[in-house]
Each structure stands twice: as C-alpha cells, then as structure tokens.
Amino acid sequence: MKNHNWQPATRLIHSGTTRSQFGETSEALYLTQGFVYDSAEAAEARFKGEDEGYVYSRYANPTVSMFEERMCAMEGAEACLATASGMAAISAALMCGLKAGDHIVAARALFGSCRWVVETLCPQYGIEATLVDGRSLDAWKGAMRPNTRVLFLESPTNPTLELVDIAAVAEIARDANARLVVDNVFATPLYQNPLELGAHVVVYSATKHIDGQGRCLGGAILSDKKWSDETLFDYYRHTGPSMSPFNAWVLLKGLETLPLRARQQTESAGAIADFLADHSAVSRVIYPGRADHPQADIAARQMAAGSTMVAFELASKQAAFAFENALAIVGISNNLGDAKSLVTHPATTTHKNLSDEDRDELSITGGTVRLSVGLEDTGDLIGDVEQALAAI
C-alpha cells in the first residue's frame, strides 16, 4: 500500500500491508521456513535474483517484510532489516561495516551490553575502540582517526537520559567519511528522527515501545538501501540474526497502537517528573521534557517530546531499594517501554558489570532509579510513587 501523505498514526496501521488471495483484514502470518518453486528453472532464477520472491525465511519472509516496510514508512528510511532482538540489531549494524584495523568511536553512556560489544567484542576482532563523553563535540572530534569507520551513540542515554547532539555528531562522521549509528529506542520513532538529523543508520529494540506489551523480542536496522544491500545484507544472511515471523506479526500489532500508547505514557512521565522534582526525598530529576534538563536546548532541537522514561536520584542504594520494594503498581524489571510501569536500579542490574569508576563517570550511583512509565492512570501512578517515597 502506498503511503500518500499519511500521518504517522495512519502509516503505522496500513503501511506495508500485503494481502494474500483471501483478502484478510489482519496481516497474514507466514510461519514457514522455506518456499517451493514451480520448476528447477524458477528456483535457479530466484537464486540468481532474476525473479523476485522469497527463498528462505532466514533471508526474508512475507510477514517480516511487512514489519520492515512499515518501519521504513515510519522512519522515512529506504531499507529495514528486522532482527531477533535489539542487541542483534546493534551488533549487526556495527560489525557488518568493520574489519580488523578499523576504529570505532562510541559515546560512553550506553546500555551495558552495547558497551560490551564496543569495549570487549570489537577488540577481539582487531577493531580499535574509543569511548568518549558523548555530550562533548570536542571529545568526538579528538577521538577521530584516519581509520575511524563507525560512530555509535544512543540519545537519550540509558539510564541517566543524557542527550547527544545527533546532527553535530553526524557532521563529524560525514567529514571523516564514517557512518553514524544511532540507537533511538528511548525516544521512539515518534519523538526523534535520527535520519532527518543526519545519522546514517538507526537501530531499535522493538522489544520495547514497538511491542510495548511484554510479549516478544525484536529489533530493526534502518538505513539507505545501498548500505543495506551492499554492507549489511550478507552479514545478516550468513550469520542469521533474523526475526521470527510470529514475532514480526506481534510487532505489527504493536505498531498499530504505538502513537496512542506513547502519547499517554509521555504525558504521565512528564507529570511524574514534575511531582518528583518537588519531593524532598529526591535530589535530582532528569527528564528531557523539562526545562531543567541539563541539555534542554538539544532536547528542543531534536526531540518532539520528552518520551516515556524518567531518571531520578535518591539518597542511597538502601533508599532506592526501599522505594522499589514499597511500590504497589509499578513492577521491578530491567525492561522498559511496556504498558505496565516498570522501575529499575541500574547499578545492580543493567549496568552492574561496569566498574565503579565507569558508573561514577556516567553519574550512576546507588541512589539512581530509572522509571519506565506505562499506561496506568496518571493519578494512580503518582499516588504509588508518593507512598513508596514515604517508605524510605
């Protein structure tokens, strides 16, 4: 289906839909590993690329293709490849374009597994890696080398919601003939468009807001078609990080409601951030939608809204644990972007493998709490947070 001039909410319901001969309303679920051909000659033509069609579900699948096309319509990308998880997307997006002797520069404020890929996995294959303070453009410029091929960042960052000036870092990448890869999961495709800001590749953990209901894993890599065809696809085809057709079908259903969910979650997140900012037990609140965010000017330039995550600081690990244990509605989980509100203590979960020095550098303390705001009634959520703070 052509997109015409549809708004995002319409594209997320209709884009990429391919109906079978039965004319089904919902997208068809093609649970198949392989495909058959009318003749040996037809199989030969398919493998040569002379005949359009599917060969094997590890390479492409009709249900997965619908999800990929819908993501392209949302992101404004030429190409998308769906993966089994967000980390599969990030690993493929980084590793497919690097070889021994190359250099990658990444912002130091990353999800723990992302830092492992940059700091541990890349050097094992002879790829040099440098971590920088992503907020500092001078740090990015100073880290560039003649062999720098990839720059990598997430914004807002996990878990302290720092922002990186995507357009400025994209310019640094272009000047060095390198590619900028942006993890856009916290902002969602609704509230930030890295490709419009100059990024070359955007990655998502579809497990988060895109599914949004705690059902399945998934990831997506979006880019221009030339890079996807010439650099990414062979890596994807031969290493096998492909998405399950069933998960693609579930994620298609998630995309249909993403604007409604994200809007309500963002409204509630802003209200909760305002409440926390006025509470005596909270020493610091970080929310990109507030004027007191340390990089509010960047948020205003590159984000359409503050999105669904709130970070805040309590007095200690003991205070954070007491707060989390007293919550009645909000669940304790390392996941995010769910319809259910979830709270995480990063220092002992998602970022526990970092050294004390690295956590200090990222301002992750024992009192740091990350809250993913769900779809519950805003007043009920504020009441739950209030009574849990009283328990400290």
Give a nutshell description of this structure:
With 392 residues, the chain is an alpha/beta fold. The protein has helices spanning 8-14, 40-48, 62-75, 86-95, 112-124, 137-143, 166-175, 188-191, 225-239, 245-277, 296-302, 317-326, 356-361, 378-390, and strands spanning 79-83, 103-107, 128-132, 148-154, 179-183, 201-205, 219-223, 284-286, 309-313, 331-332, 342-344, 368-372.
Protein described:
This protein is an alpha/beta fold. It has a domain at 259-390: Alpha-Beta Complex (Aspartate Aminotransferase, domain 1), CATH 3.90.1150. The chain is built from 14 helices and twelve strands. It has helices at 8-14, 40-48, 62-75, 86-95, 112-124, 137-143, 166-175, 188-191, 225-239, 245-277, 296-302, 317-326, 356-361, 378-390; strands at residues 79-83, 103-107, 128-132, 148-154, 179-183, 201-205, 219-223, 284-286, 309-313, 331-332, 342-344, 368-372. The strands form two sheets. A seven-stranded mixed beta sheet has the order 1-7-6-5-4-2-3, with helices on both faces. The chain has a five-stranded mixed beta sheet with strand order 8-9-12-11-10. Helix 8 links the parallel strand 5 and strand 6. Helix 1 (8-14) runs antiparallel to helix 3 and helix 1 packs antiparallel against helix 10 (245-277). It is globular, with a radius of gyration of 21 Å. The model has no long low-confidence stretch (mean pLDDT 96).
